[in-house]
Amino acid sequence: MFKPYGEKARRFILTPPEQDKRITILEGSVRSSKTFAMFPKIVPFLNLYPVAGHRILFGVTKATVYRNILTYLFELVGERNYSYNRQTGELWLMGTRWSVIGAHDEGSEKYIRGLSVGIAVGDELTLMPESFTMMLLNRMSPTGARLYATTNPDSPYHYVKTKIIDNEEWRHHVNVIHFTLDDNPNLDEDYKNFVRKGYKGVYKLRFIDGLWVMAEGAIYADSLDADNEYDDESMPETLRVPQFQAQRCISMDYGTVHPHVYLDCIDDGDTVWFDREYFWDSTKMARQKTDSQYADDLELFMKGQPILGATAYTNPMPAADGALVIVPPECASFKAELSQRGIWHTDADNAVEDGIRMVSNMLARKKLKIHKKNCPNTLRQMQSYAWNPQAAKRGLEEPIKIEDDANDGLRYFVRTQVPTWRIAA
């Protein structure tokens, strides 16, 4: 199953665990063989490396650990040499017992509280809550305990950078190995160019150059330009044919004291087209609508009919009746209204940072386009969407919660409906 390794990966794999430092972090570019190098490194821990305590594999969820690590590891050792309970996370691998742990929130540290940990292998360390990681390091008391983890760089204020990598008191205990795309000999130049074009601005600096840099300024400044806009003349004629096989959704953001937004989303399997918007600004209009009134407007919007004070377009697409509506998960009363009317809907995936990265990626590759006449508020808000500098200094990455309504609706569609294989990674 294994292809050739680059020199950095080979040195990491062939170094005996006894010679490794307490903490080894493989950081750097996407697709640079960080996780790939971890599989053969795990093998000595199974029955050759003598260390007391529990052995754990951890990631954001058990599902991501299974997908990113275990499927490849099982292929390596063969089906007779492992058994795994995906519900409990109990793993037996060549005669040794492991625990697979998902650490997606601050409460995850309870899974390791009280344990004595000898070996820990982690995927995407910067996505782990600080409380979990620091508790894990506290539990690694046995002589010879080792932590191995992969990660892409994040903010220079992230705790992994400030409290582990740059911790002067730990500098003799931490080894950081930096990987770039060129450290993976199995990638051809065409693919590397494809991946590089998928990232702009801060995402290029982190996911391609592998640098710990802050997210500053306008979020889409480096990826959004005139090539992401279209009009009736430049739109592919096939999208206007009702029988054309394209996914049609209405993605929304619910408004109370801020605008209520519907976006007509058309996905042809290659490019996502945001063709129309409904934008009801209750502050500007001096009138807040009820759930029932918003649902009335949604039905009109799905029929392609303009709504006074909220939409203005002259050449709408064919009706979107029956389209899936993507609703923020917290909007319980509005979802109840849609259910009562028989309107097909689903909860949006509201992962903010991952959603912004996916949108930025699609914008950079010109796989996301917005109608410049029918979606003026969407374009305006995307151009002004900015990172919160105060949150960044606390190691958090959050957009400023002003004029973000259309951005949220657009992100909900991309994060919820666009498969990850269409995103450069």
Structural topology:
Layout: H1 7-14, E1 23-28, H2 34-47, E2 54-59, H3 62-77, E3 82-84, E4 90-93, E5 96-102, E6 117-122, H4 130-139, E7 146-151, H5 159-165, E8 174-179, H6 189-197, H7 201-207, E9 229-230, E10 247-253, E11 260-267, E12 272-280, H8 282-285, H9 291-302, E13 324-327, H10 332-341, E14 345-347, H11 352-364, E15 368-371, H12 376-384, H13 389-393, H14 405-417
Parallel strand pairs: 1-7, 1-8, 2-5, 2-6, 6-7, 9-15, 10-13, 12-15, 13-14
Antiparallel strand pairs: 3-4, 4-5, 10-11, 11-12
Helix pairs in contact: 1-2, 2-3, 11-14, 12-14
Terminal Cα span: 21 Å
Counted up, domains total: 2
How would you write the strand order of the largest sheet?
3-4-5-2-6-7-1-8
Biggest sheet statistics: 8 strands, mixed
CATH topology of the largest domain: Nucleotidyltransferase, domain 5
Structure notes:
By secondary structure, this protein is an alpha/beta fold. The protein folds into two domains: 190 residues, Rossmann fold (3-Layer(aba) Sandwich); 197 residues, Nucleotidyltransferase, domain 5, CATH 3.30.420. It is 32% helix and 19% strand. The protein is built from 14 helices and 15 strands. The strands form two sheets. Strands 3-4-5-2-6-7-1-8 form an eight-stranded mixed β-sheet, with helices on both faces. A seven-stranded mixed β-sheet has the order 9-15-12-11-10-13-14, with helices on both faces. Helix 2 crosses helix 3 and helix 12 crosses helix 14. The chain is elongated and about 75 Å long. The protein starts with 6 loop residues before the first helix and ends in an 8-residue tail after the last helix. The mean pLDDT is 91.
